Amino acid sequence: MTENAPVISVSNLIKQFGRFAALREVSADFTGGKLYAILGDNGAGKTTLLRTLAGLTRPTSGQVTILGAGQFHEVCDQVGYMAHPSLLYDEMTGMENLAYFARLYGIGDGSRCVEAIRAVGLDPELRRPVGQYSQGMRQRMSLARALLNDPKILLLDEPFSNVDIHSATDMVRLLARTRAQGKTVFVVTHQASLLEGVADEFVWMQAGKIAGRTRELKPPEATA
Amino acid sequence: MSPPSGITRATLLKDLRLEWRSKDAINSMLFFSMLVVVVFSFSFDPNAEESRQIAGGLIWVAFLFAAVVALNQTWARELRNQVLDAYRVSPAPANSLFLAKAVGNFIFVTVLEALMTPLFIVFYQLRALGPAWQLLVVAMLGTWALVVNGTFFAAMSIRTRSREIMLPLLLFPISIPALLAMVQATTAILTGEGARFWIVLLVTYDLVFTTGCLLLFETVLNAE
Fold first, then answer.
1. Tens-digit pLDDT profile for residues A32-61
2. Cα distance between residue A20 and residue A23, in whole Å
3. From B192's CA, which of A221, B136, B184, B205 has a CA 20 to 30 Å away?
4. In this predicted complex, what is the ipTM?
5. A136 within domain boundaries
6. What residue of B is the nearest CA neighbor of A85?
7. Distances (CA, A) of B68 to B25, B105, B140, B169
8. Residue B207 C-alpha, separation from nearest chain A C-alpha, in angstroms
9. Which residues on A lie below 8 Å from B6 (Cβ)?
10. Is the Cβ of A18 closer than 8 Å to some Cβ of chain B?
């Protein structure tokens, strides 16, 4: 793959839920090594787009190419995904959760889990089950889970929701560092201001379509 | 990626750990089957010969209903925080998850049977006239027949709104041949008749349905 070749391409992507079209002929290319902020109102199709990129939602029609593969499962070990819910077992500690998910990626080395937990600013020795974490800690542990397999592409859905401003700023710094390592980061968020000056591109979604892409935090009609 | 057997083992250990901490399934199953034993023992007052004739049916119906409780719990804990999505985006094979869940349920139901069988023996004054070791074979084969289909149909019903109702509706009709074989084999062993035909039927049932479930599980896991 050449340096400027898109790491993700979507073409004519349509996703229908019954009569409701969550995505309407979305076509876009995303080049590697950038941080994309996906913005839009509730119901604009942001989460559906992210879940489609993560192979969790099958498009009604259209094509997704990710790292050159037409099937998500061919490259799933190179993608990290963080959803709005934590994707963690409440009854287990953070370290136990990460050790389990590491096995799914063939990572038997516990040091990688310790590294991921430290990267998000948490203590790997914490003995409390995740169910007793604060919302902010849970979000950070969820991000650690997404980073576990050292992915080339990171798909994050609302990583800053219910997180205090200091923790959110720390998370943004971590995402900037991740991007600096040549990784591609997609962040679906309602708190776009946190990514101002950090995101390479703001992707504006409206009614299931990409309404525009801007380099600054200004809606497309405002830049026009 | 870890070999499938390693992922199955890790998932099984994780489920055993979660059950050990929450005791959701085992407590519900135990209380339910104890109620059945006590209520039936007060409802009927059979002599030893009558007990041998009806015990097979009573035991297996009690275990079948109790198993449904465990089977519903199996996937419920994967839906909390949408943890199942973390498995789906990983490179781990679907069948490893299925086998871990089926073996986990097998262990839970076997523990229940080990605890409840002495109670049945006491309350119904049971004594096998045939080879008692064959009861162990019937119990193993019968339990696997219940849990392999139960795990599969519980996975099918997790995305339905009334999954607690849906599971018995799907599971019970398809379990009839296995249930018939379990009851007839148990009765035959208790009354001193030959159970060979019913045991062969159970083996065949287990092979056919285990193969079918393994072939179809990936489709069920990724269904929307």
1. 999 999 999 999 999 999 999 999 999 999
2. 9
3. B205
4. 0.92
5. yes
6. B81
7. 10, 10, 17, 11
8. 27
9. 103
10. no
